[in-house]
Amino acid sequence: MDSNMESGQTKNTTEHVESLDDGRVAAQKEAQLTAFAPIVDPALEKRVIRKIDMMIIPFICITYLITYVDKAMLGYSAVFGLKEGLHLHGTQYSWLGSMFYFGYLAFEYPTTFIMQKVPVSKWLSINLFIWGGITMALAGCSSFNSFLALRFLIGAFESCSTPAYLLITATWYTIEEQPIRIGWWSTFLGVANSFGGLLAFGVGQINGSLQSWQYQFIFIGAISCVWSIFMFFTLAEHPSTAPWLKEEEKKAAVQRLGPRHPGANHREIKKYQIIEALTDPKTWLFFLCGVATQVVNGAASNFGSLIIEGFGYSNLVTTLFQIPYGMVILVSNVSAMYLQRWLPGQKRCFVAILYICPALAGAVGIHTISRSHKAGLLVCYWLTSTYTASFAMIMSLITANTGGSTKRTVVNALFFVSYCVGNIVGPFSFKSNEAPTYTSGIVAMLVAYCVEIFLLLAFAGYAMTLNRKKEQVLNSQGMTLEDADLQTADNVPVDQTDNQDIFFRYSF
């Protein structure tokens, strides 16, 4: 256990701020900027937030888009001759979908802890460059085994992506600001679906020496490599070292986060926080939510195009019909994030449930509507995409409800283990011998939606119980929640977990 925590010593705010830049110069800059100031000029803060939004969020959005298209390209290529080109049979296509997440699962813990030690943006850029190159190499595969091995490697290098997005968001924004920003970049899941459909349609028109599916992997792989190089040299690590902020803006960017900001990343790995993370019921509620949402995602990303094709549409038309699917995702995620912002107390769990309901109705429709009603089936398929808003909500719940650098790392890692588990299970629920109805897969989606609703209600109830207990502790000590505002950087304990901080309140 951290000796300073045991002795009750306090430290300067410098240690509450994530420093991902190696070397003494960055440390000295940060120390100069973190003198505690309880009030930041509102006009200056507004200008700083606007700059951060313009210089940080676009990088996450575009990388998120590339990451998803890279994964979903397997589904698009399936209707452009991939199965025939690789001579796939039986469950081999499902294995190609799942193998990506075996690689993701194997490297999730190592890459998450590496990001606690190295600059996150640089690590993300390097991994993006490598997985882009491997994606292009997929075009050269002519057998199931070689393609399967490369899919494992892509998953391994891509395992840093979403944890990196969450860590970057937590570094630059307050708890109240994070859900909206996560909503912004998660909407690019919808843009990615639309862009991927357009890209697949456009590339499908090429009549060259290669097959259409091969060109698709070459194009998206090349885009990944070019973007990674640009991001490596331009994405800032931390407010204190951002070259596009003036000195007063750097100071304001750090001060506005406050000494209790849980986005801070401390380099020391603390065993007691690992134990707390593993024994915290919230961790496992998040874990199960991740499995439930990603069972659906694994099915949609790998079998979405095949589901539409099964309604009776051609391969080119099938790719175009993925565009409205993406637009529904975009509208759902944006509207959900602003809805939770406007509601008193945000009520993220209940907003997430609200957006699961149309998806549940869509899955019921696909399962029950006659195959002769192609338009009705297509609309039901588009409705199933609204569940993605719940995944964005869950990610924002994790960042808002987990304190302590090491604990946050463990919870994030476990959540993305569940992400892998769900995406591995999802494709196997769709059996090739059940095409084009895929009854088992649709039923699996229905069950996943219902389980997710139950888990969100359980989390909300548990969070309310924890908040009441913390209120009782404060009252027993003759304090109120407002007393937290009176604390300064010098008397806030270093790197507390959400359980240790009596002023911490859980969002649900």
Strand content: under 5%
Q: Could you estimate the helical fraction of the residues in percent?
A: 55-70%
Q: How do the helices and strands follow one another from N- to C-terminus?
A: HHHHHHHHHHHHHHHHHHHHHH
CATH T-level topology: Growth Hormone, Chain: A
Catalogue the unreliable spans: 1-38
The radius of gyration over CA amounts to: 23 Å
Dominant shape? globular
State mean pLDDT (0 to 100 scale). Answer: 81
Briefly, what CATH class?
A: Mainly Alpha
Briefly characterize the structure:
This protein is mostly helical. It has 22 helices and no strands. The two termini are 30 Å apart.
Notable characteristics:
22 helices; globular; Growth Hormone, Chain: A; mainly alpha; disordered N terminus; 508 residues
Structural commentary:
By secondary structure, the chain is an all-alpha fold. It has a single domain, classed as MFS general substrate transporter like domains (Growth Hormone, Chain: A), CATH 1.20.1250. Helices cover 70% and strands 0% of the residues. The chain has helices at residues 3-7, 24-33, 42-55, 57-78, 82-86, 92-114, 120-137, 144-158, 161-172, 178-186, 188-203, 212-234, 247-255, 271-279, 281-310, 315-320, 322-342, 348-368, 374-383, 388-401, 405-428, 439-476. The chain is globular and about 70 Å long. It starts with a helix and ends in a 32-residue tail after the last helix. GO terms for molecular function: transmembrane transporter activity. It is a multi-pass membrane protein.
